[in-house]
Amino acid sequence: MRTTGVRGRGTLSKRVARGRDAFWLYMGLAIALYALELFGSGVPRQVRAYANDLATPVLTLLNEPIQILQSGLERVAGVGDIYLENQELRDENGKLRQWREAAQRLIVENERLRQILKVPEREVPPLATAAVIGIGGGAFERSVLINAGSTENVSGNLPVVDELGLVGRTIEVGLMTTRVLLITDLNSRVPIRLERTGDVAIAEGLNEAFMRMRFLAVDSSVQVGDRVVTSGHGGLFPPDIPVGEITGIVEDFIELTPVSNLNTLDFVRVMDYRPLPPELDSVQAPEQAGGQ
After folding, report:
1. Where are the domains of the chain?
2. How confident is the model over 129-158, as pLDDT tens digits?
3. What pLDDT digit, counting tens, does each position of 181-191 carry?
4. pTM here?
5. Which of 58, 129, 163, 229 is the most exposed, having the fewest neighbouring CB atoms within 10 Å of its CB?
6. Helix and strand counts by DSSP (H, E) for the chain
7. 128-282 falls under which CATH superfamily?
8. Residue 246 in contact with residue 205, Cβ under 8 Å?
């Protein structure tokens, strides 16, 4: 066993020595080839060709580390470029996400505006489409502020609708803003008609999310789920605008829920409906309940 180990180590040493000798031999040939290239213009071409053949393995061997180093440097540079490119792509993706979110908001807003311009489909021309910019507060007030005023020919007591139905009427008109009294306000009274039966009544605001139907004929057949629209009586609202739906009947109390979600209004339309005499267009907001 010991003899075998010694022989193995001796054989390995001889191989290393032969490899080292071959390396220096080829190195010498490479140097000689270089010298021939510089000073051997008079040496026969065939001799230089043989020298080139002999030196090729050495040159190849010497060139491999250089190629590996160059490849490594290129990869490092490539990684750096990829990192910068990825960073730029991330920044662009962030900007694209912001643009996409803005575009989605604009699409939703545009769709809402398109729907508002279609509703109600009456012969009453639109006067102004406005955004809700404020909500009236207090226990005795249900109103909103819109960004359209007398500069857009808005005046008092004009119907205001959204894409679903009646919202209220204008009461306080400024140059660029108008306050709208909602149909759920305690001071609101809307002449209505049952679509199913044609019976007329009054929708009375209660400062709640719902209204109360009053002055309905005793023999009227009213049911939960019945829809009501404006009757056109009194000349304040045009007929057939959706107002609400019957959602509860308890003895003589008939609960009416507006078709429009008055708590989340964003865009509304002021209707150019002026059947009343001009002197009534200047009617101010009714006195608020509670002794104002």
Report:
1. 1-118, 128-282
2. 999 999 875 667 899 999 999 999 999 999
3. 999 999 999 99
4. 0.57
5. 129
6. 2, 12
7. Rod shape-determining protein MreC, domain 1 (2.40.10.340)
8. no
